[in-house]
Amino acid sequence: DVKVTQSSRYLVKRTGEKVFLECVQDMDHENMFWYRQDPGLGLRLIYFSYDVKMKEKGDIPEGYSVSREKKERFSLILESASTNQTSMYLCASIPGLATYEQYFGPGTRLTVT
Amino acid sequence: QKEVEQNSGPLSVPEGAIASLNCTYSDRGSQSFFWYRQYSGKSPELIMSIYSNGDKEDGRFTAQLNKASQYVSLLIRDSQPSDSATYLCAVRNTGGFKTIFGAGTRLFVKA
Lengths: 113, 111
Prior knowledge:
By secondary structure, chain A is mostly beta strands. Chain A is built from no helices and 11 strands.
């Protein structure tokens, strides 16, 4: 059974803080993704990674960076948090083949005040 | 034009009825299609995947795909109050891992 875990379910940070969101998957998946989900906008891709130390920008990478030092772990970094980054953040992973569905983590509800 | 479009709803159906959820997509190169269910405050979970034209049935759920019309739908038979959730349509193109999600349709099943 695939498991994707995220470091926090709820997080409250102040404007300007550096924020780390961690995601770990236990099924040896090559591909990992970070999304944010906002009402009316659906899931929007921030960054994805198809291998260790590899990363690709998604649709809304501004204000974010990522790190993938180990295959099972994909971190999302908000260098200087802003109020417009208040959102639900979802991590997902898939194996190597494009037809597989994404497995999502439980999500992190981030509030920036 | 959005890449994946869904009616935001809410769609309200009585218990026991058929709920019909629709989705259109713009990329003709799309090859993989998914329906996810998302309860409030939870992450999406896969309901159905479909890759070729026609119908695919799994229990009370049927996914329908028409690539010529760039249209995919989900039918839920014998709808239950526990089916009340937001349903996300997702589309992935050939050779890619990037998945485009619709904004979702909220479904209410009234007991």
